[in-house]
Amino acid sequence: MFRHLRETGKNLWRHRFHTLATLSTVAVTLFLVGAVYLLVQNVDNLSREVEGEVVIRVFAPVGAKAEEIDRLEAALKALPGVASVAYISPQEGLERLSERYGPELKDIFAQDIRAEETLPPSFVVRASEPRDVPELAAAIEGLPGVDAVRYGAEWVDKLFLWTSILRSTAFVLLALLAFTAVYLIMNTVRLTIYMRREEVELMRLVGATGLYIRLPFFFEGLLLGTVGALIPFFLLAEGYRALVRYVQENFAFIPLLTPEAVQGTLLVLLLGVGVGIGAGGSLLSIRRYLHV
């Protein structure tokens, strides 16, 4: 084993210029794959955040009694697909309105006690799966004690359509780039083997076994794939960390994933592609010259 590793080192140094070219191709290609992967993950996270803001507002009749409100709350919580139910009293509803439209609104209500009594008790219902909101709203409308249900039906369907398009576009882009990466790296490996075909033929003529010939190429592909994956990983990890810090300081409303949430899967992805294609591609490409 040590002999094969030493031979691998000699081969890499002997063909150092081509080694550098191969390593650069792998690193640049995987850098692009990793960058698009981070983009896709954040697009998916942003879509989930936006969809998660879709809630159902359920209104009870004005002046509903406490026991009626309790029964309605229990019925809402018992529905399948409900993640949470929050009760909003008329007084709390008035406070929220005054925060949105200004304290003048509260002063207007304060001048006439009966005006405050016109605000209905309500609930804010969140669905376990945001895309189930229309169906859940329809089920809520049939519950006793429900006066009205609102969830922005006119724009929710459009929202889900656009987030679905955004997700699909991002994943298609990642798939295309990953396919391109596999194609480029495989061709680079094949070119490497082709340029050294005479060396392989010479080893066969002196009686070297197939395993003896394969192992140095396998270790070369393994090493180039590993290094070619680690270089873009560290660059992307540090670059993404700096990006998240900058966005948090200047655009805190943009919900980027934390570096810790994506680094593990990013490393697995880059190493999987780099090592898999580097080592596996070497073994597959050399078979042609071994006549196996």
Low-confidence stretches: none
Mean pLDDT over the residues: 78
| DSSP helical segment count | 11
What is the terminal-to-terminal distance?
Answer: 22 Å
Largest beta-sheet characterization:
4 strands, antiparallel
Query: In total, how many beta strands?
Result: 4
3D shape: elongated
Helix content: over 70%
Note the beta-strand portion.
5-15%
Structural class: alpha+beta
Strands of the widest sheet, in order across it, are: 2-3-1-4
Number of domains as seen in the coordinates:
2
Please provide the ordered H/E string of secondary-structure elements. Answer: HHEHEHHHEHEHHHH
Rg over CA atoms, rounded to whole Å, is 31 Å
At a glance:
The protein has 292 residues and is α+β, with helices and mostly antiparallel strands. It has helices spanning 2-14, 16-52, 66-78, 90-101, 103-110, 113-116, 133-141, 153-195, 197-205, 210-250, 259-290; strands spanning 56-59, 82-88, 122-127, 148-150. The chain has two domains: 2-50 and 159-290, no CATH class; 55-150, Alpha-Beta Plaits (2-Layer Sandwich).
